[in-house]
Amino acid sequence: MRPRVEEVRIQGLGVIDEAVLELSPGFNVVTGETGAGKTMVVTGLGLLFGGRADPSRIRPGADRATVEGTLVIEPGGRVAQQVEDIGGEVEDGELIISRTVSAEGRSRAWLGGRSVPVGTLTYLADDLVAVHGQMDQQRLLQPARQRAALDRYAGNALVKPLRAYAQAYKRHKQVAALLEELTTRARERAQEADMLRFGLEEIEKVDPKAGEDAELRAEEERLSHADALRTAATSAHTALLGDPMEAAGGPHDVVSLLGEARAAVEAVRDFDAQLAGVADRLAEAGYLISDVATDLAAYAESVEADPARLAAVQERRSVLSGLTRKYGEDTTAVLTWAQQAAARLAELEGDDERIGELTREYDELTARLTELAAQLTKVREAAAERFGRAVTEELTALAMPHARVVVQLSQSEEFGPEGRDEVELRMAAHPAAPPLPLNKGASGGELSRVMLAIEVVFAGADPVPTFVFDEVDAGVGGKAAVEIGRRLARLARTAQVIVVTHLPQVAAFADQHLVVEKASDGSVVRSGVVTLNHEGRVRELSRMLAGLEDSELGRAHAEELLGLAAADR
Asked: Domain RecF/RecN/SMC N-terminal, which positions (predicted)?
C-alpha cells in the first residue's frame, strides 16, 4: 500500500478561516481566484511536514494557526515503525499529524498523538512528501538526494557493484580504525604492557593459590587462640566424663548422671512402652556424649601453640594482602586478573606483527575499492547521460525548448559509503549558457517545471509517495499547459500529486478538483475549500478560461478540456 495524505484540516492560516481538504490517491488540483488563499494550502502542507513557521501567516484576529493531517500508511512499514519508535500510535493504518503556530511565533507538533520536536516532522517528511513551491525547492536540491535518486534511476545495473563496494568499504573502515588505534596509541599501549608485565611478575613471585587467603585467615585465628581453644576443649571434656585424676564416675560429670538416669528408668521399662522409649533415648545420649568427649580429647591433644607457624602465616597473609589490594578482592580474583592480563599482554606484544598484516589488508582493500568505485562511476555516467536527455526532452514539452539539464559527476578525494562520486544536477537556460546548479540556473517558475520534469523521469525510481507543486505552470499557457497537465497525470499513476494551479489545461487532468472559495461581508474575508463534482468543474474551468462561470463558450471549452484529459488517461 502506497502512503498518501487523505485529509487536511486548516484553521486560522492566512485568509483561510477553516477548511477541509479531502484528497484522492491520484492527481489533486487546487484552484481559486487570486487572493482566495490557494497558496495557503501549500503553506499548510509545508507546516504539516516540518516547514518553517511564520507567525505573519496567521489569520488576523486568530491567536494561532492549526494544521492537522490524516495520512494513510502501511501498518508495520518504515514510516509506521518510525512513529512507534518515538511513542506515537498508528491506528488502522491511519497516522494523525498536527502542527500549531501561535501569534507569538511558538510552534508545536504532534505525531500519532505524541508531542514531538518539529524536526521530527521534517525527518519523517523525507519518506512521505516532496514539496515543490516557488520558495521551497529543497528535496532534489540536496546533493545526497541527487546521488540517491540517480542510483535508483540507474536500476539493477548498479545494485551488484554497489553491494560489493559497500561490503569492501565497511571492512576498509574497520581496518583503518584498527590501524589508527595501533599506531597512534603506541605509547599508551607500551605503558599498558609494562604495567601488565609488572603485575604478572609480582603475582608469579608470590604464587597464590585459589582460596589460600581464606584458609590462612582461619589458621591464624586458630593459632592465635591455641591456649584458649585447648582449655575450652579440656574443660568440656571434664564436664562430660569427669576429671581422670579424680575417682571414676564422679557424681557431677554428664556421663555418670546419664547413667544414673538410665538405670532408674531401665528398672521399670517393662511396665510401660513409653518409658521404655525414653530409656532407649537415654542410652543413645550416653553413647553420643561419649563420642563427643572422645573428640574433645583428641582436639585438645592436637591444639598446640606454635609461635613460629603463627608468624609464618601472618607474613604470608601480609604478602597476599598486597596482591588483593591491587588485583582483586581475594586470591581467586587475583588469579582471574592474571589470566586476563596474560591474554591482553599477548595481544599487545603481537601488535607489530598485527600492524603489518593490517597494513597489507588495508592496501589490498584500497585497491579493491578503487576498482569498484570506478565501476560505480561508469554505471552512473551512463545513467546520468540517459537521465539528462530524458529531462531535457521533458523540458522541451514544458515550454522550455532551449533549456538543457545535465548531471555532473565529480570525484571526491576520499571514499564514501556509496563510492567517490559527487552528483549535482545542473541546468543551462539556453545553448550559450553554461550549466549551473538548479537553484542558480532557473527562476522560481522555471525551477518548478524543471522539478516536474525531473520527477516525471524519476517516477518509480525515486519513490516519494506524495508530490506537492505550487504554481508549476507559472509563465506558460496553451499547448505547453496541456503537456504540464498530462505529465502531472502521468506522475500521479505512481504517486499522489497535489497541484496549485491557475491554468484550466492543468486542472482538467485532475482526478479530484478542489476550489478555494472567498467570501466577504465587507469587513472580513474568509476562504474555504470545496470539492467539485463534474458540473462544478465545468463552471470552475469556464471561469478560469473566460472569467465567467456561465459563459457558453467557456463551458463548451471546459467540457472539451475534460474530454481531452479523460481520453488521455
From this structure: 6-521
